[in-house]
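[Automated response] Your request has been received and processed.

Submitted sequence:
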Amino acid sequence: MTVVASAAAAQAERMPDAPSTGTRRRRRNPGASPWWAFVFLGPTALGIAVFYLWPTVRTLLISFTKSGPFGGAEWVGIENYIRLFQDPELIGALRNTAVYTVIALIGIPLAVGIAALLNTAGLKGRSAYRTLYFIPVVTMPAAIALVWRMIYNGDYGVLNAALGAVGIDGRSWLTDPNTALVAIAVVGIWAGLGTNIVIFLAGLQGIPDTIMEAADLDGAGPVRKFFSITIPLLSPSIFFVSVISVIGALQVFDLIYMMLGRSNPAMPNTRTVVYLFYEAGFLDNDRGYAAAVAFLLLVIILVLTVVQFRLQKKWVHYE
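Generated structure:
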């Protein structure tokens, strides 16, 4: 042991003392360069600029022009916007779009209720129910429109046959101006129900079990727990679904286009803002006016989204 200690002491004497500077030098991390942020964000930022920002700017510029019959464009300033706000069809399109949006929002409480039932402990076949509700989401809109046109058919439709079995007279749902828009909105609710249910199920499964157990100890019943605990804790998911539902409803076009058609007598009562854009841009070849319609819809969506984000502070509860 003495020999080992002597050797260690001799080795320590031969080693030079490290210079003392009073501060530790920090080693530079090569991965901390700010250029790496641009490397990773660059593709996404480029995609947003090319596919979102530039089309928006381009649409705004086109809205100040008038297309010629053989191509080309002439700068006309705000003439398209003056014509747009004087167009009587715009008022009807805005009204129809608003009615469709309000009806489409009914699907949110419906999806919440179904998701709460599917989240019941001990429910058998939960995965099968999820699949059944999600099938319309992955189904082509053309197939959905074809099936529902057969269901709504006034002569041989399944809906009128079911109503006739209980003594109720049916009607031609898609050609009646009083029912066409509501009938299409019902299809929209059915088609988007699966996505909303999946989102709400994820939110329900994120609620801690300890909260529900504490409510059980306090004697709260299922209804009280649903409205006092489940709904407040699910409010962030409800807010998200409400935002995307409003944006999607304001842009409805495919169902109206495929289920009705231009010659349908109910078209004036179902024409939406996007359908007005389609008629101006693709049927009348008036690209400047169509761009003005599109930019007006963009402003409406932006304003409503901002309003929703402002109002969410009063009813959305974050943990």
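Summary generated for your ticket: The chain has 14 helices and two strands. The beta strands are 65-67, 73-75.
If you did not submit this request, please reply to this message.
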